[in-house]
Amino acid sequence: MPILGRRDHIIEVAIRLFCEHGFHATGVDRIMREAKVSKKTLYNHFRSKDELILAALQQHDSVFRNNFVKDVEHLANTPKDQLIAIFDAAEKWFSDQNFFGCMFVNVVGEYSDPTSPMRDVSRNFKQMILRYIVSLCVKAGAKDPEKLANELALLFEGAIVTAQISGSPVSAGTAKNIAKQLLAASLAEKARE
Amino acid sequence: MPILGRRDHIIEVAIRLFCEHGFHATGVDRIMREAKVSKKTLYNHFRSKDELILAALQQHDSVFRNNFVKDVEHLANTPKDQLIAIFDAAEKWFSDQNFFGCMFVNVVGEYSDPTSPMRDVSRNFKQMILRYIVSLCVKAGAKDPEKLANELALLFEGAIVTAQISGSPVSAGTAKNIAKQLLAASLAEKARE
DNA sequence: GCTAAAGGAAACAGATCGGTTTACTTAACT
DNA sequence: AGTTAAGTAAACCGATCTGTTTCCTTTAGC
What is the pLDDT of residue A4? Predict the structure, then answer.
């Protein structure tokens, strides 16, 4: 296996284990065993477990972003419809056998120090999602795009956690329903100007 | 210290540490050290760490429920206003120095086995919150109380996680704003009958 | 074909994990 | 006053944790 592929493979395995079992509960021994890689190789690519955690979070950030945006764009064509399609993509995500909630929410539950780099990555991820929703709100012609985007992001967050705890994807539909109302109200207000 | 007081004291310390640092990261040594209790005493009251975790979750369940309902009832008098006051109580909660998100969300991030007793406790907690909101919706005269309650519970969840990650309590206001719209719409639909 | 980097397996280190046991002390009840 | 239950501090257990090191094999480039 090529060198860069090996590093990515370790990260991929680590993401899966961190998502399913958490960060403190996942030891490096298990990661190297499941990645079929020696401990020396693992520590050759990552200086510490914390660095591997950070690399996993950053990788998951970009992979999730790409997949999610792609999903939304395949599910709807106009910005207005895409704002709603966010929750269809969410439902698909929640229905996956390997859905264990949001990795960035889970990591924040294990590292509470606000100066921790893990929390930085989590905050950045959520801000990235928010910026994406803001851009759709602007293109859709919302009255107050920032406000609407914050509301939709909060709905998204609520749907994720509710699905994680209940074990059911129906929360996506609940959130979608509210989103439709908020979007319609925002567009109507704009039209009334 | 009386015997029952000692057990409760251990649980109280455990709850604080589990909330701040997570479950796997908090060792029994640290709990006994901060509770100023010997290891023998701790294992005399709890057969294992898992049993202590469960006891902590159950205790937090009832304490949180009592405090939260009391807060809501002090903040508003009518069921309709109390449904909105949920988010004022939430803002107060988020502003606390010792706010580390919802203990039941955090525990689910560390124990993914759906048959785990920790997840049972979490599901039960969220259902208890939902039933409370349903009862308020019924008393408020909502058109579809179950539906509205599910929506408000999802908003509540979203506000909690958003506050936890962002470190700001403003998400409570965002959720409150949406809640007002949903409640008004539900009551208006009912009146139109 | 030789050199050098990289990987694998496994031993090792020191700390910490959950949990048990021992020896001694405290406090309460008849 | 003497018994008993419950406490403490600390040693101890085996397992596991993150991280390092050793020794040997593979592989790739010149």
Answer: 60
